[in-house]
Description:
mainly beta, 11 strands
Amino acid sequence: QAQLVESGGGLVQDGGSLRLSCAASTLTFDKYGMGWFRQAPGKEREFVAAIAGHGYMTMYADSVKGRFTISRENAKNTVYLQMNSLKPEDTAVYYCAAGQGYSRRVVSYNYWGQGTQVTVSS
């Protein structure tokens, strides 16, 4: 069973930055597309960003495009989400996920981390 562990969440002011990391184990990591999703209280889990296994293709939700950057280091079995110009509406629990595809859809991912809280104060 694959394990994904997120880190890097926290409290930041409006306009600040955070970098999330997600370390994967027991996966042939470069065979998996990786995604970041987020879920705010009372809302459905939503797509944030995804990166293909080789790392050359990425996609983003419109709400984060130009502010967030997803990247991966396959040698370290780790995916990152650099978040700049954070806004209060970015406040949510952020989850990383692994799937044998490259998708915006929650159902396309087989493995999920436990989540890390990101809170942006105004």
